[in-house]
Automatic annotation (TrEMBL):
Protein species of origin: Paramixta manurensis
An example Gene Ontology molecular-function term: N-acetyltransferase activity
Residues covered by the N-acetyltransferase domain: 9-167
Coiled coil spans: none
PANTHER family hit by this protein: GNAT FAMILY N-ACETYLTRANSFERASE, LD18367P
Pfam families membership: Acetyltransf_1
Protein's UniProt name: Acetyltransferase
InterPro entries the record matches: Acyl_CoA_acyltransferase, GNAT_dom, NAT_camello-type
Length: 167
């Protein structure tokens, strides 16, 4: 089995030049899992093609994963819109198949949570869907707890799994 250490991987902040590549990663992964725009998933987000601009806002960050110089994944954190100011949201964690299972999602989530703590957030929210069982298991291992209703105004109406973590 290949490990992350054996691959030419790089984790770095998003740049404007990454917008098309990370949008394509998100669209590819979403299609693979049946997370289509008509169901209100991330691919319907009008900001998908401008993630650099979105995550350049205050208290927001997004990191890109490169394999041999090619964008293969990413994830970020930002204030949860329409909510209390101490709540951030873990967002847009997507990875192409060749880099899944290498611990990159855990690494990126921990980086995002550290970033959030440094910015004064005391809670982190996320939304996902039940079909992403590996992601849910990771979030549970990281201390996220299932909650019953949605928080904020994410616009992801079909993300039926909602979780919250105290930072």
């Amino acid at each position: 089995m290949t490990t992350a250490a054996q691959l030419n991987l790089r984790v770095r902040p998003i740049t404007g030049e990454d917008n098309p590549a990370i949008a394509q990663v998100i669209r590819t992964v979403s299609a693979e899992f049946g997370l289509t725009a008509d169901k209100g998933y991330t691919v319907s987000d009008p900001q998908l093609d401008r993630l650099f601009e979105l995550y350049s806002a205050a208290n927001s960050a997004y990191w890109i994963i490169e394999l041999d110089g090619v964008v293969v994944g990413g994830g970020g954190v930002a204030p949860l819109q329409c909510s209390e100011p101490d709540i951030c949201e873990l967002q847009k964690m997507y990875f192409l198949a060749p880099v899944r299972g290498l611990g990159l999602a855990r690494q990126l989530a921990l980086r995002a949570l550290d970033f959030a703590r440094e910015r004064g957030f005391t809670r982190c929210y996320l939304e996902t869907t039940g079909s992403l069982t590996r992601a849910i298991k990771l979030y549970e291992q990281l201390g996220f707890e299932h909650i019953s209703g949605p928080m904020g105004c994410t616009g992801h109406v079909d993300c039926e799994v909602r979780m919250l973590k105290r930072l």
